[in-house]
Design goal:
- It is a single chain.
- By secondary structure, this protein is of the alpha/beta class.
- Helices cover 34% and strands 26% of the residues.
- The strands form 3 sheets. Strands 1-4-3-2-5-6 form a 6-stranded parallel sheet, sandwiched between helices.
- Strand 7 and strand 8 form a beta hairpin.
- The chain is elongated.
- The two termini are 16 Å apart.
C-alpha cells in the first residue's frame, strides 16, 4: 500500500480512483465494509482503491476540551487499512486552517484535483468540510455535476448493536471485551514499550509483570483484571493484565501490568502487543502482598480456563501475529 502523508506528495495527481473518506478510528467492521466495497469496485473497474483519512483526529483539533479517546493508534490504523487490500492511503494533516476548507473546495481541490475520484464510497452518516456542508445529498449532486458516482453504505448492526466508534469506546470503558470484539472483528489491543516499574511483581508478590504506561490520550478500559494474549517478537503467550493504580501499594500513576505465562525474558524497552479477551474482576485493595498473591493465583487459574476454552481461536490470532 502506497502511503501519502501530505497532499503535496501526490505528484502527479492520481486518476480514475475509487475512494472512501473518514477518520476510521478503530477500523471496525463498519469501516471494513466500506473498504471491501472500495476494493471490489476498484477491481471490477480496474482502477486504484484509495482511502483518505486525517491525522490527528479532527475532534482533537476542533474540540480539544472533550478529549476524545481513540480506539487505535495511528500506526495500528495504518496497519489495519493496509490489511484490507487498499492500494493507496492518503493521510491529510488536520489543522485549524485545513478545517476552514469548504466542502466544494475539498471536492474540487482534493477529491478531483489530487485524487482523481471516479467513484466515491461513504458511510450513511458521512459529512465533511466547514460546517459539515459536505453531506450525502451534496456529494450526490457534486457527483452528477462532475462525473463521479456516489455509493452510500448502509449502517451495519451486530446483535442489535450499531457498529460505530462511539459505541466501541463505550463498551471498552465498561470492560465488555467480548462485545468489543464483535464490533471490531478482532480483540481490542493495547501496545507499547515495556517500562521500568517498581519491580515488586516478582520479588515481592511472586508474579513478575511487564508494565505499559497509559497516556492521557489513550482510551482506558475499565480498571481491573483481564485475560490477555501477549505478542512479543512474533510469538504469543497467555497472560493476566491489571489496569489501574495498584491500590494495595498506594500508587498514583495509571498503568497496565501484565503477568505473561511461561515467560522469563528481559523485555524492558521492547515493544509488546496485548489483546484483551475478557474482564475478570474490578481492581481491589488487598491487606498486603500475601493476600494479593493469593488472588492473582486465582486470576491465573480463571485466565487459563478462558484461554483453554478459546484455544483454537487463540492459535488463529497468534498465527496472524496480532497485526489485526
Amino acid at each position: 500500500m502506497k502511503i501519502y502523508t501530505n497532499l503535496s506528495e501526490i505528484a502527479p495527481p492520481l486518476t480514475n480512483t475509487c475512494v472512501t473518506i473518514g477518520n476510521f478510528d478503530g477500523v471496525h467492521l463498519g469501516h471494513q465494509m466500506l473498504f471491501s466495497e472500495v476494493v471490489g469496485k476498484a477491481y471490477r473497474e480496474k482502477v486504484q482503491s484509495v482511502v483518505v483519512t486525517f491525522d490527528p483526529h479532527p475532534l482533537q483539533v476542533l474540540r480539544p476540551e472533550i478529549s476524545i479517546k481513540l480506539i487505535s493508534t495511528y500506526e495500528q490504523k495504518v496497519e489495519l487499512i493496509g490489511m484490507a487490500g487498499i492500494d493507496a492511503l492518503v493521510v491529510i494533516p488536520f489543522t485549524r486552517e485545513f478545517a476552514t476548507t469548504t466542502a466544494k473546495n475539498f471536492v474540487e481541490q482534493v477529491l478531483i484535483g489530487k485524487i482523481g475520484v471516479s467513484e466515491l464510497v461513504v458511510g450513511h452518516d458521512y459529512a465533511f468540510g466547514k460546517g459539515r456542508q459536505g453531506d450525502i445529498p451534496f456529494l450526490q449532486e457534486q457527483g452528477r455535476l462532475r462525473g463521479f458516482s456516489v455509493k452510500v453504505v448502509e449502517p451495519f448492526y451486530v446483535e442489535d448493536m450499531l457498529v460505530s466508534s462511539t459505541k466501541i469506546r463505550e463498551l471498552v470503558r465498561l470492560g465488555r471485551m467480548r462485545d468489543v470484539r464483535r464490533l471490531l472483528g478482532r480483540y481490542y489491543q493495547i501496545r507499547g514499550e515495556v517500562q521500568q516499574g517498581k519491580k515488586r511483581g516478582g520479588p515481592v508478590v511472586g508474579f513478575p509483570t511487564a508494565n505499559l504506561h497509559l497516556a492521557e490520550e489513550d482510551l482506558c478500559p475499565r480498571h481491573g483484571v483481564y485475560v490477555t494474549q501477549v505478542s512479543y517478537e512474533g510469538k504469543c503467550y497467555g497472560g493476566v493484565l491489571n489496569i489501574g493504580y495498584n491500590p494495595t501499594f498506594g500508587e498514583s500513576r495509571l498503568s497496565a501490568e501484565t503477568h505473561i505465562f511461561d515467560f522469563d525474558q528481559d523485555i524492558y524497552g521492547r515493544q509488546i502487543k496485548i489483546n484483551l479477551l475478557r474482564f475478570l474482576r474490578g481492581e481491589q485493595k488487598f491487606a498486603g502482598p500475601t493476600e494479593l498473591a493469593a488472588q492473582i493465583s486465582q486470576d491465573i487459574r480463571q485466565a487459563k480456563e478462558v484461554l483453554a476454552e478459546a484455544l483454537e481461536e487463540f492459535q488463529l490470532s497468534c498465527e496472524e501475529k496480532f497485526n489485526r
